[in-house]
From TrEMBL:
Protein name in UniProt: Enterobactin exporter EntS
PROSITE patterns: MFS (PS50850)
Record key words, sorted: Cell membrane, Membrane, Transmembrane, Transmembrane helix, Transport
GO molecular function: transmembrane transporter activity
Superkingdom of the source species: Bacteria
Organism: Leucobacter soli
Gene Ontology CC terms, in alphabetical order: plasma membrane
Topological relation to the membrane, as annotated: Multi-pass membrane protein
Subcellular location: Cell inner membrane
Entry annotated with the keyword DNA-binding: no
Transmembrane segments: 39-62, 68-93, 100-124, 130-151, 163-187, 193-213, 269-296, 308-330, 342-367, 387-410, 416-434
Domain Major facilitator superfamily (MFS) profile span(s) in chain numbering: 198-447
Amino acid sequence: MQESGDDDEPGSGGSPRRRIRDLLVDTTPLKHSPAFARLWFGTSVSQIGAQVTIVAVGLHIYELTQSTLAVSFVALWALGPMILSGFVGGALADRYDRRTVALVTACVAWVSIATMTTIAFLGVEATWPYYALAAVNAASATILGTARGAIQPRLLPVQLLPAAAALAGITMGVAITLGPAIAGVLVAAVGFAWTYLLDAVLFIGAFVGILGLPSMRPEGGRSAPGLASVLESLRFLRRAPNVRATFIFDLIAMTLGQPRVVFPAVGALLIGGGAVTVGLLTAAFAIGALLSSLVSGPLGQVRRQGRAVTLAIAVYGACIALFGLVLLVSRLIGATGSADRTIVPALVLAGIALAGAGAADNISAVFRTTILQAAAPDDVRGRMQGIFYVVVAGGPRVGDLIAGALATLIALWAPALLGGLVIVVLMLVALRVARGFQRYDALRPTP
């Protein structure tokens, strides 16, 4: 007689406990590799502080200028250095010990945060130092992320990469849930300087994760950093349609569906609630990402990962458009708030839309990351990760500029509503046109 428990009867579909366990995030990568576990934990801690600073800088610039366009200029200052550092960082990661590359750039990132904290305590009101330091921090974070992304496939077997990507989704979900909320509360309670200081303290987690790694020199032929190395990576990308598609599709989503620069104005002029609303809207996106990661167990069984990316981005666009629709309806019916008065129904609906967008974006990220790490050979993996981080970090900054311009020229609702609808249309077209990417098979990964 079979005892009750985790054992399954034939044809039963599994016991309730087994089905729930299969639904939840797979933590096997943490058990398989202690080095990966330390890296994941350290990154998780430091990313909370990074999100605190991202939100705090936007709020700080808005307080100094009262301009949404000025907030979007944070992206403009950072964009060039980030693009350059993505290519340079990738070349460095394919030439030198990736642990060393990560450690050096982590030091640069920490110094930029510490300097921003210092000038905030000194009461500096000129905006350019904050723009410049945010750019340095973004550039060094890009190189750091490039090195970490190239390290991860060396710590885990290929079948655990989707689970590792889902764990990364938890990292970002927790960070973007807690970080903006903490930033909103701290800015309102103790000011910008103490808020920046928290990031400087939490960044210690990044050092813990990196120092726990083994030496990680790239495999195969190592090209010297320089223009030739960058050109070689671009030639590889031209021959790698599946890897290339992950970059293009993410650029579409991030440049056309990135409404975060309107959050300060939405909190001040439309939904109301000020800095607290900014934190809640940003956190709503992350809550969706976090929840989708917590129930990401079935994602490891998906074979048509290219099609999954396409559908997830289409859902993302629909949710972003819904957020814009909430703002438009609030404006049309005259339900506007202020820094001291919040329109709660609008805030709830906007939060639900952004949570859906966060969940869809995270699912897309799980599959895009897996395709890149499984399909790219180790000798170009650093450079592919560099391009990946240029897209992931640079795309939203271009999106910030587009959103800031549309919000200034048309209205606060325009960037989300118009951009989201365009994303949906483009993904529906991609389902029919990008047939090779739709057929990508996780069991036979090809670049």
